[in-house]
Amino acid sequence: MKINSIPSSNMVESYKGKSVNPAKKAEQSVAPDRVDLSDEAKSFASVIKEVKTQLDTRTEGETKHVEEVANQIANGTYKVDSSKVAEKILGGNFDITV
């Protein structure tokens, strides 16, 4: 079996003619990616957005209380009232002295 060799100069020339210009290649892929949502998905997204809005709203008093507790924790002055904790856990009004 005889294999004919191809002169190296011919190989290089054949590749030079087939090279792709990177700038041309980039111009060809201009179409942006796209996502289409169904009507159900859009409806679901709006419901979720509304629920989040309802959950995130606090009254002025609640906001003030949260800020006070956050400041106390940051300053290291926050004290836990064990009687109130026990009352919440047990669901009754107990007078616990420690």
Helix count, DSSP H or I runs of 4 or more residues: 5
Alpha carbon gyration radius: 36 Å
**Which series of helices and strands comes N to C?**
HHHHH
Q: How much helix, percentage-wise, in residues?
A: 55-70%
Strand content: under 5%
Largest sheet: none
Low-confidence stretches: none
Number of strands: 0
Chart the SSEs and their pairings:
Blueprint: H1 8-18, H2 22-28, H3 39-56, H4 60-75, H5 82-90
Explain how this protein is built.
- By secondary structure, the protein is mainly α.
- The chain has 5 helices and no strands.
- It has helices spanning about 10-20, 20-30, 40-55, 60-75, 80-90.
- It starts with 7 loop residues before the first helix and ends in an 8-residue tail after the last helix.
Concise account of the structure shown:
By secondary structure, this protein is mainly α.
